[in-house]
């Protein structure tokens, strides 16, 4: 009987602690919701944030490691200092930097579309094509479901 009482007491304690934790997390969640609501309402009335965003966007594209990314970093540092933030500093970091090579083009061969040019785009970190170019078959894919169906056909 004594064991049953202890187990019951433990179960009640666990339930109470869990209920308290749920109420506490609910309270914390409400605090975050209220803070988010205040920020949103303030942003809709006070347009200062949009003017900052406008300034930042005028710096231009900010690919990591680019000249514009460095300009944007210093812009942000200066804005924080001008706004009176305490302890504003920059930390040195290693950032990969990719520079786009020459623009290449693709041309269709050996089909009824012979000679038709295709727009292509290199993604950051891409390696260049050698002087001989690349010749490969094209597999037309009309939607995401077809990609799943054709995945074994396009391996590699």
Oligomer description: single chain
Could you give the order of the helices and strands?
HHHEEH
Unreliable spans are 1-5
Broad structural category = mainly alpha
Instruction: Count the beta strands.
Output: 2
How much strand content do the residues show? under 5%
The gross shape turns out to be: extended
Major β-sheet profile: 2 strands, antiparallel
> How far apart are the termini?
69 Å
Mean pLDDT: 81
Query: Biggest sheet: strands side by side, in what order?
Result: 1-2
- Counting DSSP H or I runs of 4 or more residues, the number of helices is 4
| Helix coverage percent | 40-55%
Describe it for me?
The protein is an all-alpha fold and about 160 residues long. It is about 50% helix and about 5% strand. It has 4 helices and 2 strands, in the order αααββα. The chain is extended, with a radius of gyration of 29 Å. The termini are far apart. About 0% of the residues are buried.
Quickly list its features.
51% helix, mainly alpha, 156 residues, two-stranded antiparallel ribbon, 4 helices, disordered N terminus, 2 strands
Quick gist of this model?
It contains four helices and two strands; from the N terminus they run H-H-H-E-E-H.
Topology:
Elements: H1 2-45, H2 48-59, H3 67-82, E1 106-107, E2 117-118, H4 144-150
Antiparallel strand pairs: 1-2
């Amino acid at each position: 009987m004594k064991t049953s009482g202890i187990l019951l007491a433990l179960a009640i304690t666990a339930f109470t602690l869990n209920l308290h934790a749920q109420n506490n997390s609910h309270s914390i969640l409400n605090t975050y919701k209220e803070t988010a609501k205040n920020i949103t309402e303030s942003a809709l009335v006070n347009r200062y944030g949009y003017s900052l965003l406008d300034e930042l966007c005028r710096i231009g594209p900010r690919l990591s490691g680019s000249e514009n990314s460095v300009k944007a970093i210093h812009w942000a540092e200066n804005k924080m200092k001008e706004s009176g933030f305490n302890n504003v500093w920059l930390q040195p970091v290693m950032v990969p930097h990719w520079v786009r090579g020459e623009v290449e083009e693709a041309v269709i061969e050996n089909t009824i579309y012979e000679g038709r040019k295709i727009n292509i785009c290199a993604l950051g970190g891409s390696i260049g094509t050698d002087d001989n170019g690349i010749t490969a078959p094209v597999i037309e894919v009309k939607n995401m479901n077809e990609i799943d169906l054709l995945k074994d056909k396009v391996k590699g």
